[in-house]
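Troubleshooting log. The previous structure file for this entry was overwritten by mistake, so regenerating from the original sequence record. Sequence copied from the archived sheet and checked twice against the printout by T.R.
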Amino acid sequence: MSVMRKLKLTAEKRGENTETAEQQMRRRLVEHLDEQLELAAAELRGEKLVKTRQIYVTAENGERVTQRIEQRLRKWYWRNVDGNWFTEVRYGNRALKLSGENTAIEVGEKEKLAEVIGMLKDAVMAGELDKALAMAKKERMATLRKG
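Regenerated output below.
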């Protein structure tokens, strides 16, 4: 018996990306929030989180080679002078306006940071930040058109 006869063949075609623009923005924001969770957890353990990414560089002989470089990770959380911790949700290099002009979320103690980020992930998945994301995207596109 031939190998091809053992396989189940079908006329199914590869589908298009069925993810809407809102779903894609939510997914990417959740990925960034997961990264913030990793950063916070590493900081609580007293460690430094290091992530790398792959780039292509042309060597002296003209050959393209891959290199791994350390990725710069920016924290979305900070401590003020009173010792309270705050976080924000960012779209690109700007903080999202969550309510009016308010961009920061008061966390309180550093140990509650993971809990607050988890609640933010739930809010993103429920679509509660879609309006803020759309406004941030609109502002960013307007800025790009000017420059």
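The first strand starts at residue 51 and ends at 58. Archived copy saved in two places this time.
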